[in-house]
What does this fold into?
Amino acid sequence: MEKSNTVFHGSDLEKIEMYYGIRKEDIVSFSANVNPLGLSDAFRNALAGQLDVITSYPDRDYKSLKKAIADYCQCNQEHVLVGNGSTELISLIIRLCRPGRALVLGPTYSEYERELLLAGKSCTYVATREEEQFVLKEEALTTCLCEEISLLILCNPNNPTSSLITRKQMERILEVCKRFDILVMVDETYIEFVPDADTVTAVSLTGSYDNLVVLRGVSKFFAAPGLRLGYAVTGNAPLLSAVSDKQNPWAVSSLADAAGQLLFSDKAHIEKTRKLIDAERTRIYQMLSSMDGLRPYKPHANFILVRIVKDGLTSVELFDMVIRRGLMIRDCSSFFAPDSTYFRFCFMLPKDNDRLLSCIREFLA
It folds into this structure.
């Protein structure tokens, strides 16, 4: 079979199964960026005892769920919004934002641009630079801010670069945006994987900046993408009211409502996840840094971006090689087109990580 030029998403296991003839159950997905520990036994048992919740409508105001989120995030319960995955909230916020252009820090998650286009908004990208390790230089961003821009979208830590914006940087960006009446939407999907996440998250700034909305979900850190549970924190009263007015009733199912209240209090599983990711992130970055032909970029989330710098080799070829062995990475050609030398993978269990590293060494040989 010839190599595929299709770029597969982390959720495209059915497409992989059809194209390569590999059962999706036999694929270790390094592409979806989901916690490799999965669901804890404590959570499974607790949720199993609450299955009867699906026989009733959820509380329309989701008071208990919002309290669980507020306790977890250490924020004001009145500042919490919940939705059918963070994607629903991204869509709602974009549609409710005042007319004007949106500025997006890239390369980043493509769903932002898709939702902007669906809302009829123009989108301008400010790119971080490879020679600067894809680390944000504030001046490059703030000099692009002006009255014509109504929305700034940041992903922190960013996908696919795994780079980080510090809280001090975020505060300075918010100050500039406030002068131009720009709403700042910060997607913190991967923030819980960051070392000392409490010192980085922008949630604590929502009490001081009403031009800030922070988005999160349970898909990645809590390994529950099928729940479709997302949430946002903002001190912007008009936005809180507008989202509540425009959102479909019962956007979060009874099961997701119950599950969310359990997930955020599962402290043992939260700590176990952080220890595993911290250890594997350090180990894998060091190993990749020692390989001739690769340029890894320092990761802060649960995944790493790598560039192939050995002549004649591409990320398309690497993807094809490892998928035939049941290992799925993310070919990042769509993020960096037409360049096809970047790939991304998340940190799985040590034995699976070792299998992938062995394949990469073989590929470079």
Q: What stands out?
A: The first helix runs from residue 13 to 20. The CA atoms of residues 47 and 54 lie 12 Å apart.
